[in-house]
Design goal:
By secondary structure, this protein is an alpha/beta fold. It contains 9 helices and 10 strands. It folds into 2 domains: about 100 residues, Ribosomal protein L30/S12 (60s Ribosomal Protein L30, Chain: A, 2-Layer Sandwich), CATH 3.30.1330; about 100 residues, 3-Layer(aba) Sandwich (Alpha/beta knot), CATH 3.40.1280.10.
């Protein structure tokens, strides 16, 4: 494939600096309404989910290796940029890189609204700390057909590369709503008759073996260190 719009060999190029900033700063991502991906699988998952690529960076070797996967993404990108291996190392947020990087526009309706249904199954994630845990939960929830995830605002950013990588594209396959008031969301779930359970180490807790999760329900998972707050319980 030889339709590169330009070649970048300088690690100080403004587009390179923008990618690095977006990769490291939650504020920059939301101010600019952009997020980044690294690697062919994650980039292809975002593109397949309807996200519009703004800047696609790729080494010559990457384009030769991933020609079929990259072609449609390259054609849809506003800027398709060939980069040197040195620049690829500057962009890389992982120890080994495939030489494929992209900047995507966030969707207008982001975060996706979760459609609440009394027959649905939902997860509520409150004040999680580890982006890897958030990504793993999203990946697992997507695999098990969970209808939606409600994530508290103080949890890791959905669009951080650590969350995206851990989710293995799961973040693009399941509706996620980021909330400033998870107690309010719990109340909305209960108002439509949806049982809401808290996963908690508490002497008053009922064993999960005694709870039926076959019908519609929501399960709240709390902070890795402190669990769920007393207010929410």
């Amino acid at each position: 494939m030889n339709n590169f719009s330009r070649e970048i060999t300088s690690r100080d190029n403004p587009m390179v600096k923008q990618y690095v900033l977006l990769a490291s700063s939650r504020k920059a991502r939301y101010d600019q309404k952009l997020f980044v991906t690294e690697g062919i699988k994650l980039t292809a998952e975002a593109f397949a989910a309807g996200y519009c690529p703004e800047m696609l960076f790729a080494t010559e070797d990457a384009m030769d290796r991933y020609y079929d996967d990259m072609q449609s993404i390259a054609l849809a990108s506003d800027h398709f940029l060939r980069i040197s291996n040195s620049v690829a190392q500057k962009l890389a947020q992982s120890t080994s890189t495939q030489g494929v990087f992209d900047v995507f526009r966030m969707l207008d309706n982001d975060p996706t609204d979760v459609k609440i249904d009394c027959n649905g199954k939902f997860l509520l994630l409150c004040s999680l700390q580890d982006p890897g845990n958030v990504g793993t939960i999203l990946r697992t929830a997507a695999a098990f057909g969970i209808d939606g995830v409600i994530l508290s605002q103080d949890s890791p950013d959905l669009y951080s590369l650590k969350v995206l990588r851990a989710s293995m594209g799961g973040v693009f396959k399941i509706p996620v709503h980021v909330t400033n008031d998870i107690c309010c969301d719990i109340q909305k779930l209960r108002e439509i008759g949806l049982p809401v359970y808290a996963a908690a180490l508490d002497e008053r807790a009922v064993s999960i073996r005694e709870v039926s999760l076959k019908k519609g329900c929501a399960v709240e998972i709390g902070n890795e260190g402190n669990g769920i707050s007393n207010e929410i319980k």
